[in-house]
Write a structure and sequence with these properties.
Largest sheet: 7 strands, mixed
Radius of gyration: 21 Å
Distance between the termini: 27 Å
Number of helices: 14
CATH architecture of the largest domain: 3-Layer(aba) Sandwich
CATH superfamily of the largest domain: NAD(P)-binding Rossmann-like Domain
Strand content: 15-25%
Shape: globular
CATH topology of the largest domain: Rossmann fold
Helix content: 40-55%
CATH class of the largest domain: Alpha Beta
Strand order of the largest sheet: 10-9-8-7-11-12-13
Bound molecules: nicotinamide-adenine-dinucleotide
């Protein structure tokens, strides 16, 4: 059993206990509605055919069509995909999105494939991923997928069905029906939440120090929004290493530097810091925005930040979560903190269905409002039940799913 599935079951059971959910409902929520494993044959450039394993899991679609990302990573397992799909159900539900949770992916290392092999793999994934389509299950992007892969997926889907269906695939390029404001939605949502938390605590942006682990889509956009608003980003890192300046990094220059070198490591205006040290550095807010399970029972007692903003999915293990809660450190859970992209994916589906595309301002105004609404609901539940923010967000999500299941006669 993967650490991620263990964490997910732990969070579910804790939230279910906090809101007095019956055992049969808990058991039903821990089941996945459909879980498909399939083989994707890919003609390699050398003429041979390689087979790759693909997965698509629909956890629950009582609230609406299921949807979310596709990750292409070596060693991906069905267990990991199931955990991610369940978390998506909670994320959609806790943010008022009328959608269920799904996730998919391929066990493959894209760095070992040529562009042509990668395209054939992605197109093969869509042919194998059944059922699919708007109103059924809508794959979006995740690790190693991007607007380019989503465009291939859309084209493959439309070639197979013979029907133009922009709503069948999410995170596509704008020209093919993607939403404005989708690319940086997660970083923006985290920034809006940061502003709100700081306002509540009476922290002025210029006094607030923030360390960001991971400088990809999530981390770099979060850092950019923070810097534009006058917050001090004191540390940033990626897989190759990190950079640190207690007075605040020049994020604009750091973005230029990473654009030209492909990494934050070696940034000349900061001193170097390891990923481990970044997690325990002196700062007000720590934003683990790279990979799962980086804050564990081993380092949770050494965290100095007062707030953790979960940019990544599952960066804090269940054991560490307990320690942090005991120490009074506020963890803004992934299901709310990084929901920006899930929220804009919902807007993307709506726009594609109507074939009517919104201005950036409308997307961002609605996104900001939804993040604040989700935060307020989570805080009220946490105060009412005396739980952590994470448990509160899961309670809010679970309640909506269970209610939808009851209406449908599924419980
Ligand atoms: P990305 O591929 O654009 O960037 C990942 C970053 O993390 C890179 O800078 C990479 O070098 C770094 N990294 C990878 N492994 C690392 C390690 N072991 N230690 C330190 N840094 C490491 O990915 P992303 O889209 O920014 O996603 C990051 C995380 O956020 C993932 O967990 C993803 O599931 C989650 N997430 C992403 C979105 C989104 O909108 N992109 C939304 C919700 C959640």
């Amino acid at each position: 059993m993967s650490q991620m599935w263990k964490n997910t079951v732990g969070y579910m059971k804790k939230a279910a206990g906090a809101c007095g959910l019956e055992d049969d409902a808990i058991a039903a929520l821990l089941l996945c509605k459909r879980s498909v494993e399939f083989q994707i044959p890919v003609r390699m450039d050398n003429g041979k055919v390689n087979y790759y394993t693909g997965y698509r899991v629909i956890h629950n679609d009582a609230l609406g069509l299921s949807g979310d990302g596709t990750r292409i990573t070596a060693g991906l397992t069905c267990d990991e995909v199931k955990a991610l799909a369940l978390v998506m159900s909670i994320k959609h539900a806790a943010n008022g999105i009328p959608a269920g949770g799904a996730k998919g992916g391929i066990d493959a290392d894209p760095s070992l494939l040529s562009e042509g092999e990668f395209e054939r793999l992605v197109r093969g994934y869509i042919r194998g991923m059944i059922p699919k389509g708007y109103n059924v299950d809508v794959p979006g992007a995740d690790i190693n997928t991007s607007p380019k892969t989503q465009a291939w997926m859309l084209d493959e889907y439309e070639q197979v069905t013979g029907i133009h269906s922009p709503g069948a695939i999410n995170d596509k390029p704008g020209l093919l029906g993607g939403s404005l404001g989708g690319e940086d939605a997660t970083g923006r949502g985290m920034y809006v939440l940061t502003q709100e938390i700081c306002k509540e605590r009476g922290w002025l942006p210029e006094d607030v120090t923030i360390a960001v682990q991971g400088f990809g889509n999530v981390g770099s956009n979060y850092a950019r929004y923070l810097a534009e608003a006058g917050f001090k980003v004191v540390a940033a890192s990626d897989i190759k290493g990190g950079t640190f300046d207690p007075e605040g990094l020049d994020v604009g220059r750091l973005l230029e530097y990473t654009e030209s070198t492909g990494t934050v490591a070696g940034f000349p205006d900061g001193s170097s810091i390891t990923n481990e040290d970044l997690l325990t550095c002196e700062c007000h807010i720590l934003a683990p925005s790279a990979v799962q399970d980086v804050i564990t029972e081993k380092n949770a007692s050494n965290i100095k930040a007062r707030v953790i903003m979960e940019g990544a999915n599952g960066p804090v293990t269940a054991e560490a979560d307990e320690i942090l809660y005991g120490r009074g450190i506020a963890v803004m859970p992934d299901v709310v903190a990084n929901a920006g992209s899930a929220i804009v994916c919902h807007y993307e589906r709506s726009q594609s269905a109507m074939n009517d595309y919104w201005e950036l301002e409308k997307v961002q105004t609605r996104l900001d409002r939804q993040i604040l609404k989700s935060y307020t609901a989570m805080r009220e539940t946490a105060l009412g039940l005396g739980t952590s923010f994470r448990t509160a967000a899961w309670v809010n999500g679970i309640k909506r799913i269970v209610e939808a299941m009851r209406w449908r006669g599924l419980l």
